[in-house]
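In response to reviewer comment 3 from the previous cycle, which asked for concrete evidence that the modeling workflow produces usable outputs, we include below a single protein chain processed end to end. The sequence was submitted unchanged, and the resulting structure tokens are shown without manual editing.
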Amino acid sequence: MSDKPFPQPVSVRVGTLVNRISSTWEALELLTSQWPCPKCARYRKAVAACHDTLDGWASIDKAHCAFVEAAESAGLLTETPPIKGKTPLAI
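The workflow returned the following structure tokens.
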């Protein structure tokens, strides 16, 4: 598995810290070791997409989009990054 950089970093707030997530590996690390919210369907989708991307089975855009959606649904986004092919989310 090799790390895959995101097309646009994602800023998320976990507790009092703001984390700038710039790759699939960083997203997976946050999801599996620091995620402060209940493990909902979007969380599980993001974990699976990150694993698939790192294993070469899915695109970086798929992992990026799934991570942004999970962070947004958990209320962790500090800013809304553009997602390829999607309208930006309102915070």
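Strands lie at 5-14, 17-23. We consider this sufficient to address the reviewer's concern, and the full set will be provided in the supplementary archive.
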